[in-house]
Amino acid sequence: MRDIVGLYLNPPDKALVLCVDEKSQVQALERTQPVLPMGLGYVEGVTHDYYRHGTTTLFAALDTLDGKVITLCKPRHRHQEFLAFLNHLDRRVPAGLDIHLVADNYGTHKHPKVKTWLARRPRYHIHYTPTYASWLNQVERWFGLITQQAIRRGSFRSVSELVQKIDAYVVSYNLHHRPFAWTATADSILAKLQRLCKVINGTSHYPCSCVAASTAARHRRAKRCILPRNRPNQRNCECGQSRDRCCPRQPELTDVELPPKGSHRAAPAINFPRSIAYPPPDIYGRRHFQRRLGVIEALSPPRQTWKG
Fold first, then answer.
1. Which fold has domain 2-32+44-191?
2. Domains of the chain: which residue ranges?
3. How far is it, in rounded angstroms, from Cα 183 to Cα 177?
4. What is the mean pLDDT of residues 230-248?
């Protein structure tokens, strides 16, 4: 990582730093209806259904010094297509400069034939990003730009039409190219990762937070004890603390305040005993418990009789 960040912040003399990657499975989607432009008072209209005419793979190399892009579209993204892009790149770059390639550790980039191609050309130096750190590759940011500005809102009747749209966008982008400003140092990135790992590895246990990652567990913690439903007689909570300390006992069933006779308002809140491990979803889900309490008749609206 230090090598890649060093190339961004302090590029070597008489050398080019190129960020290389591929955007695979670019779909040629044809919308069933024309896209309506955004206007005053309404947003852009795009249909949800489409016809899919195929895919293409976009290979790109971004020059970190001036922001120019070299691209090539291929139907697949194997090592054969990557080698074809490297040959295309070799014909486009100046002959007297060293080339530093920044790429992720995808298997295609490490194929033996690719390594042989690089070994035969000593001026090429490849730098692989760490695993799960493809965000270090600046061409990923350019892929986001072309997706937002040329591909996502487009409607293409064939793959060739999609490729023409991509080529036209690249020509227009190179006319007004601007490099991305990289400001983060390697030490700042590693310090941020260290703080993140410290928080992840040293997470303290909040009251009843032993299974706080689960939505259902958070819901049960907010309502009543978070002891598992299938183990109501367990003495210790999942965090290892005792049941009375970690999950204090909920108050037993209290008296229910009934609404006045003839009132149709919603049922009152009921504190159920701890043996009930799930809260009823609504008033209709509470009818079973209300029937057990003998208040179902008071909560039900009066029957309407037909008078002919």
1. Nucleotidyltransferase; domain 5 (3.30.420)
2. 2-32+44-191, 206-249, 254-300
3. 19
4. 55
